[in-house]
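Why SUMO-conjugating enzyme UBC9-B-like isoform X1? Reviewers of the renewal asked for a concrete example.
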Amino acid sequence: MSIDVIKLLIAEQKQWLRYPIPGFFAGPSENEDGTKNWMVWNCVVSGMKSTPWEHGRFPVRLYYNNLYPGSLPLVRFESNIFHPNIGPTRYLKIPSQVLEPTFLAPKMDVRMILLAIQHILVYPDQSLSARVNKKALYLYQTNRPHYNYRVAYVANKHSATSGDAGTHIIKAERFAGT
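Here is what the prediction returned.
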């Protein structure tokens, strides 16, 4: 564990608590002994308005490494999501343009990461290297109305009023300290 990364993540949480994004939550998880695990964050990403994702609130976990912010955290959804860049292990395959050195900068923070996740949900990476759910990609490319129907179904399952999603959101909010 890098002390510099931990200091940066502590500063990011302070910034997050001062200026949260409405409908989103973010904060470090807790270890079994009750201490904060700064390298693993529990978060909730809201679906983008005016899209099939808009009613969803999606619990995700960010796994940071010692190279952050020069290397993005791994992103794992806490439940199954129908999306071209999310496979059966529920990890989001981050689009290659997000990994460009010009995008990764010292200003990269949890706010930008969560907004990037929200953006990727709506605009999946269709490049060969990012195709982890071929059925979702096929529908996205060939039958957008059916794809949007499937996405809206998933989003409604993950709405704030949905029992399963609500449980994940409450856990994420509790762990995030919000």
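The helical segments are 3-18, 110-122, 134-142, 144-157, 163-176. This is the kind of structural detail the renewal will allow us to pursue systematically.
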